[in-house]
Structure formats: structure tokens, C-alpha cells
Amino acid sequence: MATKKVEKLAIDGGKKVWSKGFPAWPQFDKKTDKKVLDILHSGKVNYWTGPVGMQFEEAWAKWLGVKNAVSVSNGTAALHVALTALGVGAGDEVICTSYSFIASSFCALQAGALPVFCDVGTDHLLDPKKIEACITSTRRRSRRASRRARRRSWSSTSTAWSPTWIRS
Ligand SMILES: Cc1ncc(COP(=O)(O)O)c(C=O)c1O
To answer: Same domain, yes or no, for 102 and 163?
Structure first.
């Protein structure tokens, strides 16, 4: 097998592959600054006093081609709403990626369910081959056959964010 000379890693004193620094995050467009200030200056900063929240939902639903959209304050709240909308609650288990932000599994607890951590693959995304092993036999026995497993449609490219498999 051909070998290639590997340079010393930067951490060991080698040359850095990138030395210009990284951009700050998050970044906002100037137009966003103005929109936010316009809302603040209008004094109508509540969902029910100002129109922007509802306008956003309408535009978002249209863009997605769906009937309704619900806006929430952040990603954590969105996960909470998603699990609740799916009817996840006490007695359910939510199989979560073991490599993510805390909200990815905390949303299960918020819904009253139990998060079960599943290993990720070398791509750092949840490994679909390991999901079955995360379904505990206790749970398997205790669930009524009529209650079917609800599976969210996931591709291996979209698993970093959230719970992937919900069994009830
Ligand atoms: C993978 C993942 N899920 C959920 C969240 C929660 O998003 P938010 O901070 O908007 O509540 C984050 C935030 O960084 C995240 O990285």
C-alpha cells in the first residue's frame, strides 16, 4: 500500500490549515436588524398584539405547501411541540441520538416520555442499524399490539437534530 507523508498536526506544532479565524455566529442581515427594530418600536411585541407572528406562519405554511404552520420561540420549543403533536407521552420511549444538543433528548422528558440513547455512526448521525436494539423487551411486551410504532421519516442526513424513532 502506498504511504503518504503526513504533516505534523497543528496541535503538535505543525502548520495550521486555516489561520484567518472563523466568522462569528450567529450573524444577521442588516434587513433583519431593521425588521426587529420596527417591531420593537411599534410596541406590539406580543403574538396577539402584533401581526408579524401570524404573517410569518402564513408565509411559512405557503412556502412549505402545507395548510398550517406554528411558530415557536426556539428549537427546543419546536421539538417539544412536535412530540406533543405526535401524541408522545407517559409510557412512551423516544430513541434519541447520543451525539447532539441536550434538547434532542430533553424534549422526550418534557413530554413525559423516556429518552433512550442510540449510538451514532462514523458520520456522527444516528445509526439506523442500532435502533432495533434500543427498543427494550420490557417495553416491547408492555405495549399493546394495536398501538403501532410511529416512525418519523428520517434520512441519515437529517438525524443530527432530533429524536428519530418513537415507539408507543
Ligand atoms: C441539535 C440541536 N437541537 C436543538 C437545539 C435547540 O435550539 P434552541 O437553542 O433554539 O432552543 C440546538 C441548539 O443549539 C441544537 O444544536
So the answer is: yes
Q: What's the confidence (pLDDT) of residue 156?
A: 37
pLDDT score at 162: 44
In a domain, 93, yes or no: yes
Residues 116 and 49 reside in one and the same domain: no
Looking at the structure, tell me whether residues 80 and 38 fall in a common domain: no
The pLDDT of residue 31 is 94
Nearest Cα residue to atom 15 of ligand 1: 101
Phi, psi of 134 (to 5 degrees): -85, -10
Measured from CB, residues less than 6 Å from any atom of ligand 1 are 74-76, 100-101, 103-104, 161
Domain that holds residue 49: 30-64
Give the HSE-up count for residue 17: Cα atoms under 13 Å, Cβ half-sphere: 4
Q: Is residue 12 part of a domain?
A: no
What is the number of alpha carbons within 13 Å of residue 25 lying toward its C-beta? 2
Cα(115) to centroid(ligand 1), Å? 17
pTM greater than the 0.90 cutoff: no
